[in-house]
Design goal:
By secondary structure, the protein is mainly beta. It has one helix and 52 strands. β4 and β5 form a beta hairpin.
Length: 614
């Protein structure tokens, strides 16, 4: 079998719980599977009034027995069949109405089967055909259930004990078969889920339903169903305390009246020998909720410089006739605020006067609204600092306008120095990468002393790159791996000497031998990659953190020059500086174009250049 293709895409943050609501599901009907003994593990709506139900335990008691039933919503048996692959553990079901296929999770085999009915049109008969996808290949070792998303064309796999949902798309062949499947990063629900036992899909809001038989974190055993977005944000909690061991959920037409109800299958006491399962029809109110709104974390920025706002907003899709709208506004502050687009979450703001401002992001679904505030500290014009670090002694020398105004010791000889704003206060301070132990050491002041932050980082030979890669006003340390000619973007800082885990994104750019750096070339508050190719003396700048060709390229500098970046003229965008070891001079240019330096000064010999704002 060909290995599953794993696509590296940005990792999602742990699911937010802000703005969620709790409600009780009302029991409408209970089906006891009698005289047919079933301990149901999976349920899915096939359309019309039919449900497909699987049992993952019956073959442990009676080998060869049927483990699949097509039923009415009131428990009437329409057809029985058997998934006969080995081992027989059909734990969860999903149905793709577009191609008529059923997807079956199997926690014993750590896999998902993609099953097509044969000529008889029934699942669980000998003329079924199927393909096989290993979930263990991408880290899901307890695949308890699956849910099909017809909008995104993805299968969501619930990792029971992993507390994750993992989206997977079929490759060009249209099958889940481990050959060309596209696997996206897992979404961690561990902030509120103890165990994922079942998954369902809600078409009305394009959301997922997650069954936790333990009731979730801090729930004291009250069974729950969580409605979450496809990025893992918690929308609502539906309490189903009358169930015993719920294992899966499906939405289907209500047995009386209009609308849809939840159909929850339950394994009873969970013992395979007991076969005491049941099914509950549950009415959930799915009440309209006010939008979730976040204006982001408090920020700082220089006066008259565009600040990228870190807002976020989401609505539950109700009422369906109204779309979510957002508005940025100024609540308080000493001067005027100019928004790039005050009707967009991803906006920007420019402040006319130094001081403290409060901005508000308001979201409305046409009926209900919510808002959140962010405080922005606007500083006077920043001082653009150019520094030189003597890597043989660990002395940092800081220059303003070519005049040294500070010096201090930080680090050991041979440490790799850089400069960044680690505590988001608007001032950039020293950082080091020590290749001998693989640690990053960061300090929050331009003074001698021990590191305020340290963490394990990268591989030997990696080049650290400090910058703000998501526009949140805080710098982090990303890396360039020369052996791969690949950038790894990391939007968080480590702590407590621990490792960072996977990068938020990664992409190839340039060729081996290029010298990497980063800067904000467009003035949008986000640092993106640049390269200098020593073989031809050309600089290649890209305006997004993605793979592709350069957006700007030009010739600049001499062989042996060391490149660094900064905003030398305080116009909001970064340009290049060069340190020439042969003469100890720093050369600064105010535009990203070929030409001579706009300013230069003697800094000294044996230095490694750094730059930042203070």
């Amino acid at each position: 079998m060909v290995a599953t293709l794993i696509v590296v895409l940005p990792d999602s943050a742990r699911a937010a719980t802000t703005g969620s609501a709790s409600e009780d599901g009302t029991l409408v009907n209970q089906v006891n599977f009698n005289p047919v003994p079933i301990d149901p593990a999976g349920v899915v709506h096939l359309g019309g009034g039919d449900l497909l139900i699987s049992d993952s335990e019956i073959n442990e008691v009676t080998p060869g027995a049927n483990n699949l039933w097509r039923m009415t919503r009131t428990g009437g048996i329409l057809f029985t069949g058997r998934f006969g692959y080995t081992p027989v553990e059909p734990t969860g079901l999903a149905y793709n109405s577009a191609n008529g296929r059923v997807y079956v999770s199997n926690d014993a085999a750590k896999s998902v089967r993609d099953i097509h009915p044969g000529g008889d049109g029934q699942f669980g008969t000998p003329d079924d055909s199927s393909t096989f996808m290993s979930t263990a290949a991408f880290g899901v070792n307890d695949p308890e259930d699956v849910a099909w998303d017809p909008v995104g064309g993805r299968l969501y796999i619930g990792g029971g004990t992993e507390k994750t949902i993992t989206p997977v798309s079929p490759g060009p062949n249209g099958l889940f078969d481990g050959a060309d499947d596209v696997v996206f990063p897992s979404i961690n629900l561990g902030a509120f889920v103890n165990e994922i036992e079942g998954l369902g899909y809600r078409a009305a809001t394009d959301t997922l339903l997650v069954v936790d038989p333990t009731g979730g974190v801090g729930a004291n055993g009250a069974e729950r169903i969580y409605e979450v977005t496809k990025t893992g944000r918690l929308i609502r909690i539906i309490r189903i305390a009358y169930t015993e061991l719920p294992s899966d959920v499906a939405l289907a037409p209500a047995t009386s009246g209009g609308g849809e109800n939840l159909f929850v299958v339950d394994r009873g006491d969970g013992a395979s020998a007991a076969m005491d399962g049941r099914m509950y029809e549950i009415s959930a109110p799915f009440a309209n909720l006010a939008p979730f709104v976040s204006a982001g974390s408090d920020r700082s920025t220089p006066v008259n410089r565009s600040l990228t706002l870190g807002g976020d907003a989401y609505d539950d899709g109700q009422p369906s006739t109204n779309a979510l709208s957002v508005t940025w506004s100024k609540v308080s502050g000493p001067g005027s605020v100019t928004f790039g687009n005050n009707k967009a979450v991803d906006s920007s703001a420019t402040f006319s006067t130094p001081g403290t401002y409060v901005l508000r992001l308001t979201g409305s679904d046409g009926v209900m609204q919510n808002s959140d505030d962010v405080t922005v500290t606007v500083q006077t014009a920043v001082k653009n600092v150019v520094g030189g670090v003597d890597t043989s002694t660990g002395i940092w020398r800081l220059f303003d306008g070519g005049v040294q105004f500070n010096s201090f010791y930080f680090g050991n000889p041979a440490d790799f120095p850089f400069y960044g704003d680690w505590d988001c206060d608007g001032d950039e301070t020293p950082g080091l990468y020590r290749q001998s132990d693989g640690y990053v050491y960061l300090r929050n002041s331009n003074t001698q002393g021990v590191a305020d932050i340290s963490f394990f980082f990268g591989n030997p030979g990696d080049v650290p790159l400090a910058g703000d890669f998501n526009g949140d006003g805080c710098d982090t340390v990303s890396l360039y791996r020369p052996s791969e000619a690949k950038f790894y973007i990391i939007n968080k800082l480590g702590k407590g000497d621990a490792g960072l885990g996977a990068a938020d994104s990664s992409f190839f750019y340039g060729v081996p031998g290029d010298v990497p750096f980063v800067g904000d070339w467009t003035g949008n508050g986000i640092d993106t990659p640049g390269l200098r190719r020593n073989s031809d003396g050309f600089v290649y700048l890209r305006n997004t953190n993605t793979q592709g060709i350069a957006d700007v390229n030009y010739f600049y500098g001499n062989n042996g020059d060391v490149v660094f970046t900064g905003d030398w003229d305080n116009d909001g965008d970064d340009t290049l500086g060069l340190y020439r070891p042969s003469n100890g001079i720093m050369y600064l240019r105010n535009t990203n174009s070929t030409g001579i330096a706009d300013f230069d000064f003697f800094a000294g010999s044996g230095l490694y250049p750094v730059a930042g704002d203070n």
